[in-house]
User: What shape does this take?
Amino acid sequence: MTIKIDSKNKEVLVIPLYEKDNKIVFFNIKNNEKIKEQIIKKLKQYPSFKAKKNQSLFLEINSQKILLIGLVEKFDLENLREAYSIVFKIISSMEEKECLVEIPDNKKETIISTVEGIDLTDYKFDKYLSEKKENNTTFYIDTSKSNEKIIKKTILVNKFVKYARNLVNENSNIIIPEKLEELCRDFAKQKKLKIKVLNEKEIIKQKLNLLEAVGRGSEYPPRLILVEYNGDSKNKEKIALVGKGITFDTGGINLKPSGYLEDMKSDMGGAATMMGTFMAAVELKLKKNIVLVVSTAENAIGGSAFKPGDIFTSYKGVTVEIGNTDAEGRLVLADAMTYAQKHFKVNTIIDAATLTGACLVALGPSLIGMFGNDSQMKKAIFDSGEKTGDRVWELPIYEEHREMIKGKFSDIKNIGGRDGGAITAAAFLEKFVEKDVKWVHLDIAGAARSKKDSFYIPEFGTGRGVRLLIDYLENN
Ligand code: BES
Ligand code: ZN
Ligand code: ZN
Assistant: This one.
């Protein structure tokens, strides 16, 4: 699939329209009046087509193929993504070669969302399929050539959304901590960035005991990976993008039952999001100073696995009793956050993690749960969510939640009981945020993967979070 700019007519012509007072209305675009008249005439044969939201109709008028797509009069960006995602699906199923795409107006955001709708739908994890289907359509967006740059940029960001999807979709015996290291090393080398990797020996030596404990039961040793990008040396802000990289979460000795294990190769979704975001930010040469922090281990079960009831001293010095080995994400994040603050002097932290089933229960399958200590930052990330469609909803942390993770024999426990599970997990992470460091935690347990294909979001790995954070980094 290719996306270009052109205004000349093609085999297929895509036209958005909407319904108002039971009438079909064209947007005020330049597609020629003659065609409009012909369409209106032809539509008399199709009384069930009302141009309702996402309703589509394929027509042929004097051998000109036309695809009508229903929008709404006051469309938002998500309406556009959905509508043009439908356009992509229809056109690609017909194996058309060239297609001219009309858009409802010429605003920058409209063009971006149209391209997102088409391009993000052009994705299939087909590595393990014997029969692969390529899409060879060229979509020509009918807009001025001056918009070429923003289209290129949109496609570049989408590439890293798909990169994150691929990482989540790939086998857990391939995406192991050492593989994430290799991917980060390759990228760092290519972009001449500084990289630091703590292997299992250094993790033990430097006493990142929580990360070590989680990784102990696995054949695949853990890693802490840090890559530095300095896009604005004059700026004092240094942002850590911290990702939970549990390459498979069995639950450990508190083994997950069948029905809960099957999706757990996606438990490195936070790492995938942050790697995708970081790589896109570097490619876009954003004026930001960013440290990518990937804390990665496999939460496996075996004779050497860490056990409930054991108490470990975190890298920070706070002692933690293991109430449940399945609450492993907060453990690997805690040591990673401390390390990034101590050795990289970051003053802002954003973490993304498939942290709690409770977040899914609270917010449903697609929303990102947000926590943090800086209202301005949270507001900005919320706004980016509304704009990009990677939607975010804030949850609070109050004193009563902090109470719930207090330990009897240790400073804190890694579980706080069933109630408010997403919040007590966030309260645990909060313990590892140093004074004056701004922090936002994104629980993407639901958002990172999807149970079904829906518009431009495919089944399983979604890549949600990448466009959200790129938008935030670009505009703040
Ligand atoms: N990786 C899971 C969270 C998860 C669950 C992500 C479902 C995606 C879908 C996490 O490590 C976990 O198991 N959390 C436990 C915590 C509990 C033991 C306090 C949970 O949510 O049940
Ligand atoms: Zn777990
Ligand atoms: Zn997990």
Summary: Residues 249, 251, 299, 326, 328 surround zinc ion (ligand 2) (CB under 6 Å). The first strand starts at residue 2 and ends at 5.
